[in-house]
Amino acid sequence: MRFALLASFIAVATSAAVAETAPRTWANPIDIDYRYNFEQMNEGISYRTGADPAIVRYDDAYYLFQTLADGYWMSKDLVDWRFVKPDHWPFDSEVAPATLVADGKLFLMQSAFAPRPLMVSTDPAHGRWSFWTRQLPPVPGATQYDETGTRVANGPLPPGPWDPGLLRDDDGQVYLYWGSSDRHPLYGARVDFRLDSDEGEGKRLAFLTTPAAFIHLDPANHGWERFGPDHTLGDRPAYMEGAWMNRHGDRYYLQYAAPGTEYNVYGTGVYVGRAPLGPFEYAPYNPVGYKPGGFVTGAGHGSTFEDAFGNAWNAGTAWLGVNWTFERRIDLFPAGWHDDGQMWIDTRFGDFPRRMPDHKLRDGESTFTGWMLLSYRKPVTASSSLPDHAASTVTDENPRSFWVARDNTAGQTLTVDLRGTPTVRAVQVNYADYRSDRYGDAPDLVTQFVLQGSLDGRQWNVLADLSNESRDRPNAYIELTHPTKLRYVRYVHKHTGGKHLAISDLRVFGNAEGPAPAAPIRVTATRGADSREATISWAPVGGAVGYNVRWGLAADRLHSTYQRFADQPTSFTLRALNKGVRYVVAVEAFDERGVSALSQTVVIAP
């Protein structure tokens, strides 16, 4: 289930026909109405956010739960999502929740430092929930505090379960996994959910086994578990968190997030075992989910699930961090397993448009549309701008820089000059929060705009009209009904709910005519004195927009990708390696026409 260039070209050739029926593509961050956070409202810090996604399929729909949303999202196709306001919800909201489908019921457990309710629903589509139990049992051996914050019991385990994950095994047994700490490991235990009980919400659940400590971070041997941007903060303590368990065949895959959500290298690791409570063995191909480069960075703390066709997916947390450290978004990537049990998560072109399949993907079949980025560093003009927030930032592929209009009034415009007439197939409008002064849901939090296109800058046609949009769309992705040759793309503002109109990136996708770029040459990869690192270099390719540096355990398993743009150096230090592991590395170039063949592979010796 890896990529083949042929599949990408087929996707491009057929995309026009697909677009005429129904939008079947998306781009990360996923296009949902992220909610305004309330935690910093007394400090006047306002931002939308989404993190720690738990996606589960229940009946004929998918449900997405995340941190601090006072509700959740429902989708029939993983493309279009509708927010659902529940009738019962914990007063302190949900943080990093766990989900479980069992006996026709959907269970939801919040992160907690003390016993909290376990929610259940048989009609989540209409927001109908009740309490399976009003209070989960305390974690055996955990330190406990009362409602005043006074410690009432000392124990060898930290309070919990924080960042829980749930698994119901094939024999019907239920297992709980949890942990989030820069000191403590991940834990797990078998639990009794009393699934056959008719006692109502007063039933008492129980731990059936003593919690077992499973895994600790080992940054001395695992380079990607080191903290900081590109793992550069040395020995500073890193976080292990976000437990998620999947069974595939006769193996159990205990996934975790590291080294911290606040940098570009937040990734997913996995330990593999033959039983639900281990023992577990570190996977040498870690990090299994990793996206340190490009517009969307970060892929940690999420969930792995299967769609209606049997395709695996992994949802993760992308870092934004403009207004607050934990300002984040949600991303979604194809995933799967090789026949020998190796797990993979594909983040290559992970923030370009992807095709949502309506069938079981064949081995090697790609979800990448082949639609390329047309707007990188292209000239931009705006109707107005505030100082230090110029229009040029909307084509820099950096969500932490943004344009701000002089005022948030209808009629403000942004115009991108594509410097040619490529075929435009999709546009993504990514808003920023600049002193938005919003701290919760409200009726006027909707996003409305019009997209226009032109060949000459004088005659304009409507590409998409969202003047009557009824939801907020901080990362609005628009697949055009009819692919169109254009030189100019213009955003015409109607309404946003924040105090200011701010846009970080206006991303345009499609294809220019002509052959794809040449494959990079003179690729080298030299392991450093610190064997967790390697310096990778290649010769620049003329006209390239960027490069994908790809590596893995074998030439046909280059599952990890670091996307680099052409105005960045063609030599850099990769700090995500595991000691004692042999790697294979290759580089591909991309431009507005397509993707090159892979370079020759080089080996990084252990």
How far apart the termini lie comes to: 27 Å
Spans of at least 5 consecutive residues whose pLDDT stays below 50 are 1-21
Residue share in β-strands: 35-45%
Secondary structure class reads mainly beta
Please bin the fraction of helical residues.
Answer: under 10%
Instruction: Label the overall shape.
Output: globular
Counted beta strands = 45
Biggest sheet: strands, sense, closure? Answer: 5 strands, antiparallel
Specify the number of helices. Answer: 1
Mean pLDDT across residues: 94
User: What gyration radius follows from the Cα positions, in whole Å?
Assistant: 24 Å
Task: Describe, in plain words, how this protein is organized in 3D.
The chain contains one helix and 45 strands. The protein is an all-beta fold and 606 residues long. The protein is globular. 49% of the residues are buried.
Topology, please?
Elements: H1 5-21, E1 25-26, E2 35-36, E3 48-49, E4 54-58, E5 61-65, E6 72-75, E7 82-84, E8 98-102, E9 105-109, E10 118-123, E11 128-133, E12 144-145, E13 151-153, E14 165-168, E15 174-178, E16 180-181, E17 186-192, E18 206-207, E19 212-215, E20 240-248, E21 251-258, E22 267-273, E23 280-282, E24 300-306, E25 312-319, E26 328-337, E27 343-345, E28 354-355, E29 372-373, E30 380-382, E31 403-404, E32 413-417, E33 423-431, E34 448-454, E35 461-465, E36 475-485, E37 488-495, E38 502-511, E39 524-527, E40 534-537, E41 546-552, E42 560-565, E43 571-574, E44 583-590, E45 602-604
Antiparallel strand pairs: 1-28, 2-3, 4-5, 5-6, 6-7, 8-9, 9-10, 10-11, 12-13, 14-15, 15-17, 16-20, 17-18, 17-19, 20-21, 21-22, 22-23, 24-25, 25-26, 26-27, 29-38, 30-32, 31-38, 32-37, 33-36, 33-38, 34-35, 34-37, 39-40, 40-43, 41-42, 41-44, 44-45
